[in-house]
DNA sequence: CCATGAGGACAGAGCTGTCG
DNA sequence: CGACAGCTCTGTCCTCATGG
């Protein structure tokens, strides 16, 4: 078998070197991406992905949950990868044929299946950070299904990184992964988290990794700015500056990065409040983000 | 189908220049 | 000045990702 693999490797090498071809390698399970330094400090991450009955966070249900623990060092290098755990769950309603087509999962695959909550919570609770691609989608489903881990810090590999800046085009997981030279069968939770791990481990020109960037970004608090009691005539200025109207709470608000907060405070005091009233700056950490 | 943000298309307001 | 064309700026709406 090695004879065949060697010949394939040679073919891949020849094609890689040719300017008119590009070689895509299939993702294979790994136990680590980098050599571990036993004396260096490390942290635990959990890659997570859910397949659901649809897009509605309130009405739809998880039908497949995959988690995979990994250990990473201070430079964002993944030095250990755990065994993936995957559970299916019977949603008790027939699947939309579209979902079966997308995920390959059928009613029969799910019949009588359920998530092992104790095991899932145990893994997720051990995480210093939970990473998902489009966490704003996964998190509400997971928080609702496993409320015990609802306060954990989450990071989103899709929204929190400036992929264009990192030299990528688009932000779909499969597309990003393919730009790193890999391919896999997507839309199955277990494959998607493996792809996510490969992506996170991808090296950058500065010597760091995608994961290092993501963790750094995720640890920075952002702010939810509520322009409570802003005078009515400031509404156009607030709107122009990207604030949105919360009809229920009746104030303008926006989210800003940590580095923008001082300038925002100054602007609000000078251009909105003019000495009367006070905006509220609510810090948002990874524990609250993407909910 | 939901939510969110970004970018593009288009319409309307308003300013300016030209001509009689 | 009045009528009108054309340019710019702004606001609104639409479409396009992205997750299932």
Shape descriptor: globular
Total DSSP E strands = 12
**Rg from alpha-carbon coordinates:** 22 Å
Number of helices: 10
- Please state the average pLDDT score: 89
Largest sheet: 6 strands, mixed
| N-to-C span | 49 Å
> In terms of structural class, how would the helical and strand content be classed?
alpha/beta
Helical fraction: 25-40%
Secondary-structure element sequence? HEEEEEHHHEHEHEHHEHEEHE
The percentage of residues in β strands lies in 15-25%
Extract low-pLDDT stretches. none
TL;DR?
Helix content is 33%, strand content 21%.
Description:
The longest helix has 16 residues, at 2-17. Helix content is 33%, strand content 21%. Helix 6 (173-179) packs across helix 7 (189-201). By secondary structure, it is α/β, with parallel strands linked by helices. It has 10 helices and 12 strands. The chain binds a DNA duplex (20 and 20 nucleotides) through residues 49-60, 63, 96, 98-99, 102-103, 132-138, 141, 158-159, 170-173, 187, 239-240.
Throw out a few tags for this protein.
single chain; alpha/beta; six-stranded mixed β-sheet; 10 helices; DNA-binding
């Amino acid at each position: 078998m090695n004879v065949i693999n060697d010949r394939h490797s040679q073919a891949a090498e020849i094609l890689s070197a040719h300017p008119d071809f590009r070689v895509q390698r299939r993702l294979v399970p790994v136990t680590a991406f980098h050599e571990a330094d036993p004396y260096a400090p490390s942290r635990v991450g959990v890659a997570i992905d859910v397949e659901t009955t649809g897009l509605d966070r309130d009405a739809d249900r998880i039908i497949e949950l995959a988690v995979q623990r990994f250990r990473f060092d201070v430079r964002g290098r993944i030095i250990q990868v755990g065994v993936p755990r995957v559970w299916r769950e019977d949603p008790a309603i027939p699947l939309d044929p579209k979902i079966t087509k997308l995920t390959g999962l059928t009613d029969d695959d799910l019949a009588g299946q359920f998530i092992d909550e104790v095991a899932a919570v145990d893994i997720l609770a051990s995480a210093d950070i939970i990473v998902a691609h489009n966490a704003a989608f996964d998190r509400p489903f997971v928080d609702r299904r496993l409320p015990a881990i609802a306060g954990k810090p989450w990071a989103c590999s899709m929204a929190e990184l400036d992929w264009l800046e990192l030299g990528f085009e688009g932000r779909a997981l499969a597309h990003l992964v393919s730009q790193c030279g890999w391919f896999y069968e997507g839309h199955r939770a277990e494959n998607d988290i493996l792809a996510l791990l490969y992506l996170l481990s991808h090296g950058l020109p500065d010597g760091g990794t995608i994961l290092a960037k993501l963790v750094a970004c995720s640890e920075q608090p952002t702010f939810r700015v509520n322009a409570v009691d802003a005078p009515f005539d400031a509404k156009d200025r607030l709107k122009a500056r990207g604030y949105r109207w919360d009809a229920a709470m009746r104030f303008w608000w926006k989210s800003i990065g940590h580095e923008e907060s001082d300038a925002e405070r100054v602007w609000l005091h000078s251009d909105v409040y003019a000495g009367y009233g006070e905006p509220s700056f609510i810090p948002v950490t990874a524990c609250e983000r993407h909910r």
